[in-house]
């Protein structure tokens, strides 16, 4: 029995469908073999927005592997913690050499760390100089609103020689687009709004925690903050490397997400007297 003849236009359509299917299969195989990370997304998995512990300083910096030994981490050793370190042995951290700590207090305008009070008090009780930090969510509310929330929920500063100025943690968005949907001008205005509000409430400009890559991309390498805001830079490498635009020196370097102390490992750029002076 002779096979029915397929009209020429139908044969062309079938060939086109087969070619499209083959191309799609090839793309899927390539994607499976070598998954790519979009340029504006973190290398680490995104956080669950309902995570009761929230984000932390350095979540977007670490890659899940031990950081190289920081050969230039000289100065006063310190640490930073959040709800992801719910049980900190502060006596042990002090005995191991930590002399200062930053503790996560807030995130956005609706999150206050449940471990903040115990961590803030515990670090102080063993003799550390300590401060609070706020994880910024610039797409949720204004800089002023988040600065007020931070100050009202643990981020205030007192000139007692043991309290570090509050820190603004501004880094890769853990819940979405890298720069929170803001262009460099809008991002710069948001940071200035937070910084000026915090200064009006406390008399100190906040420390800015960031990475050079995020800052230069999301603020358009804005140089305007280096004059007033101390820099707490994050880079997990043997050397601190390039500073974000606008700063000529770092105050604190977060050089690893693991080490001798619980949480992330930090170094103050100076001696202990300078650290106490910075707190004062």
Automatic annotation (TrEMBL):
Residues 40-62 are annotated as: Disordered. Keywords: Glycosidase, Hydrolase, Signal. It comes from the Bacteria. InterPro entries: GH, Glyco_hydro_25, Glyco_hydro_fam25_subgr, TAT_signal. The lineage of its organism: Bacteria, Bacillati, Actinomycetota, Actinomycetes, Pseudonocardiales. SMART domains: Glyco_25. Residues 1-38 form the signal peptide. PROSITE patterns: GLYCOSYL_HYDROL_F25_2 (PS51904), TAT (PS51318). It comes from Saccharopolyspora cebuensis. Gene3D superfamilies: Glycosidases. Pfam families: Glyco_hydro_25 (PF01183). Belongs to the glycosyl hydrolase 25 family. CDD domains: GH25_CH-type. This is Lysozyme.
């Amino acid at each position: 029995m002779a096979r029915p003849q397929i009209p020429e236009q139908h044969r062309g359509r079938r060939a086109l469908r087969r070619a499209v299917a083959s191309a799609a299969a090839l793309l899927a195989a390539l994607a499976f073999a070598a998954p790519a990370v979009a340029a504006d997304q973190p290398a680490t998995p995104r956080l669950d927005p309902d995570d009761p512990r929230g984000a932390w300083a350095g979540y977007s910096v670490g890659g899940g592997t031990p950081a190289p030994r920081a050969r230039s981490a000289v100065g006063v050793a310190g640490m930073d913690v959040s709800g992801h370190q719910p049980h900190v042995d502060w006596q042990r951290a002090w005995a191991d050499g930590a002399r200062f700590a930053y503790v996560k207090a807030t995130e956005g305008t609706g999150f206050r760390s449940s471990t903040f009070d115990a961590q803030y008090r515990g670090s102080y009780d063993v003799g550390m100089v300590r401060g609070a930090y706020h994880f910024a969510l610039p797409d949720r509310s204004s800089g002023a609103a988040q600065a007020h929330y931070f100050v009202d929920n643990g981020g205030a500063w007192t000139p007692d020689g043991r309290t570090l100025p509050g820190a603004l943690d501004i880094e890769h968005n853990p819940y979405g687009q890298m720069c929170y949907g803001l262009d460099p001008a809008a991002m710069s205005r948001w940071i200035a709004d937070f910084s000026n509000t915090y200064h009006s409430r406390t008399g100190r400009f906040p420390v800015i925690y960031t990475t050079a890559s995020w800052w230069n991309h999301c603020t358009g390498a804005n140089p305007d903050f280096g004059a007033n805001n101390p820099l707490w830079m994050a880079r997990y490498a043997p050397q601190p490397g390039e500073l974000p635009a606008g700063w000529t020196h770092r105050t604190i370097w977060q050089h690893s997400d693991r080490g001798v102390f619980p949480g992330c490992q930090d170094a103050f750029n100076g001696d202990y007297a300078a650290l106490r002076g910075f707190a004062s």
